[in-house]
Amino acid sequence: MEEKNVKKISLRLYKLQTQLEALNDENLRPLIKEIESIDKDLLKENNIKFSTKMKKEILDFL
After folding, report:
1. What domain range includes position 28?
2. What's the DSSP call for residue 46?
3. CA distances in angstroms from 38 to 6, 24, 62, listed in the order given
4. Distance between CA atoms of residues 22 and 47, nearest Å
5. Taking the chain, what is the end-to-end CA distance rounded to the nearest angstrom?
6. Are 21 and 52 in contact (CB under 8 A)?
7. Cα separation of 26 and 15, whole Å?
8. Based on the structure, what is the number of domains in the chain?
9. What is the per-residue pLDDT across 2-61, written as a single tens digit (0 to 9) for each?
10. Residue 3 half-sphere exposure toward CB, CA atoms < 13 A
11. Cα–Cα nearest to 32, from 14, 46, 59
12. Total-model pTM
C-alpha cells in the first residue's frame, strides 16, 4: 500500500480513537485499545513510521 494511503488510514483511526476517548466511557476501553493495535499493525506491516505526536499535530492543524 502507498505510504500516503497508510498514513491517511492511520490518521483516521487515531481520530476515531481520540473521539472515543473523549467520551470517557470505561466500556469503550477495549475498543479503543483494539483501534490502537490495528493502527500499530498497519504501520508495522507497511514499514512506516507515523508518530502519535505527528498525528496529533496534524489533527490540531485541521
Report:
1. 3-61
2. T
3. 12, 21, 23
4. 29
5. 24
6. no
7. 18
8. 1
9. 999 999 999 999 999 999 999 999 999 999 999 999 999 999 999 999 999 999 999 888
10. 4
11. 14
12. 0.88
